[in-house]
Amino acid sequence: IHQIALHGNDTPGGRRTLLDQKVYDIKFANIQGKMPAEFINVGQKTSIRKGIDVLKRNEILLFPPTGRGGLEWVKVRLMNRTALLNTGAVKLGMMTGAALIPVFVVHGKPFARLIIEKTLEVKDKSVEEVLQEYADIFSRYVEEYPHHFGNYLLEMAINSHWDDHPFFASEEGR
């Protein structure tokens, strides 16, 4: 299992401060230590090539469209707001023919559950259509399990002051 992730000192808003980098390194090490995945840093120019190689070997590649690394973003409706999702996963799936399968972990007692949704069909669809389908599924999980996503949404709000592509796009009247 492999995970595409953004890791490093550079952010869309510039270089992290020393304190920000220390906090980020601790957080990233904690996340990485809990996941049975090899991380591929999307900040490196070879990350997409590495992702394609993983898929050619028929291995699993986790590539969350909610991640903030990447170059292209699509506006979707998410919880009655406009969110910006990364196009990378969908474009990679369209380019390679790999299945796009939304997967969610729901924490419970005594165990966490892994929920595997239906494969997102990409044939004869635009990137925008596929990402909107994903956003609709993701919205259901946020609404049903808000405690799972509260920290993520808070972090996105905090980072929005420097992020040139904040998770929630600015909207008129907000």
Order of helices and strands: EEEHEHEEEHEEHH
Q: Gap between N and C termini, in Å?
A: 40 Å
Structural class by helix and strand composition: alpha/beta
Radius of gyration: 16 Å
Q: Please state how the strands of the largest beta sheet are arranged side by side.
A: 4-1-5
What fraction strand? 15-25%
Residues in helices, as a percent range: 25-40%
User: Which regions have little confidence, pLDDT < 50, spanning 5+ residues?
Assistant: none
Number of strands: 9
The number of helical segments is 5
Principal-axes geometry comes out as globular
Major sheet details: 3 strands, parallel
Give the overall pLDDT as a whole number: 79
Task: State the main characteristics.
single chain; 174 residues; alpha/beta; three-stranded parallel beta sheet; two-stranded antiparallel sheet; 5 helices; 9 strands; globular
